[in-house]
Amino acid sequence: MPDQTPNLSLPFIMPSQAQKHVTHNEAIELLDTIVQLALEDTGANTPPGSPVEGQAWALGASPLGAWSGQGGRIATFSGGGWLFVTPRTGWLAWVKDVEELRVMNAGAWVTLAATNSLP
């Protein structure tokens, strides 16, 4: 049996697992980020100095500091630390800094209009 769901990579609670609440809470935090996804910005490489719980950024190719090594992922400030998730093709997000709905396509957050011209 796999240890996570196939589409959202949410962790399963495994038989005989200790501290089941940790796995459950991780899944809830991931859902809180992914469902109705709202990004502060896309292509971000520097973590903010004072993030607010629940804020999320789509990371650029070479993030620094606490985001180092997480290029291309989504970083959400949750529980006083950073939670990272890899976006999948077709995910939609409201991007706050440009006030625009974007879709993940071929590893990039693009406008919906741009997807109409894709093969």
Task: Please characterize this protein's 3D structure.
- With 119 residues, the protein is of the alpha/beta class.
- It folds into two domains: 1-35, no CATH class; 36-116, no CATH class.
- It has two helices and eight strands; from the N terminus they run αββββββββα.
- The chain has helices at residues 20-34, 112-116; strands at residues 38-39, 42-44, 56-59, 74-78, 81-85, 92-95, 100-105, 108-111.
- The strands form two sheets. The chain has a four-stranded mixed β-sheet.
- The longest helix is centred in the N-terminal third of the chain and has 15 residues, at 20-34.
- It starts with 19 loop residues before the first helix and ends with a helix.
Task: Name the features.
119 residues, alpha/beta, single chain, four-stranded mixed β-sheet, 2 domains, 2 helices
